[in-house]
Amino acid sequence: MARREPLNREKVLDAALALADSEGLDGLTMRKLAKTLGVEAMALYNHVSNKADILDGIAERVMADIPSADPALPWAERVRTLALGMYRAYRVHPVVPLAMVSDQANPASPAALRPVEALAGAFVEAGFDDDGLRWAVGAVNSLVFGSLLLITSGFGTAPPGPEQLEPFAGVDPAELPHFSRLLGALRRLDPEKDFERALDVLIAGLEAAAAGKSPGGSTRR
């Protein structure tokens, strides 16, 4: 009989992320996780405190894998690199943004917060004051999380399909011509390309704000 390798925190989190990806947050239970690992549930508590600790751990793991942006790049290009990296990482593991927006995961380690630190640093370099920094970071997060919410069926495990448009099959184009046109466009959805286009528009607005060319409040120190 092959000797089982000893359990550790990394193995527990690996299994937890895989289980959450396949069965969602509700499907990630200590009992199911223990069964996946071939141990008793009590054995998990030698490596994790509870489910909240597990969710923090898998969120930290995904966030720590978001690619860094070259610090030599202009600030706007760094913002684009970081935002696109966040989008791609969270799209692979939609349970992570779901856990964060529902306040079930609050990873606070330096590894987890590195992407946010880099994003904030880019905006500080651009000259945003504290209020501008808050709404600039918030705008990027809103675009990332909002885009994921739409294209992952509410942070689900599968992208939306044509069946999601079926409830609108009876819409009369004569009565709602613009909405009908939008429905046709939605059938040609390209989530990542659409996200990149929206991100470029957002960054253009942030560049204008940093240069003092956009209306609405002070953005510079």
Automatic annotation (TrEMBL):
Alphabetically sorted, this entry's keywords are: DNA-binding, Repressor, Transcription, Transcription regulation
What are the DNA-binding region positions? Answer: 29-48
The protein's matches in PROSITE patterns, at most eight in alphabetical order, are given as: HTH_TETR_2
| One Pfam family recorded for the sequence | TetR_N
Q: Which InterPro entries match?
A: Homeodomain-like_sf, HTH-type_TetR-like_transc_reg, HTH_TetR, Repressor_TetR_C, Tet_transcr_reg_TetR, Tet_transcr_reg_TetR-rel_C_sf
Q: Which residues form the HTH tetR-type domain?
A: 6-66
Q: Which PANTHER family match?
A: HTH-TYPE TRANSCRIPTIONAL REGULATOR RUTR (PTHR30055), TRANSCRIPTIONAL REGULATORY PROTEIN (PTHR30055:SF151)
> What name is this protein filed under?
TetR/AcrR family transcriptional regulator C-terminal domain-containing protein
* Organism encoding this protein: Amycolatopsis samaneae
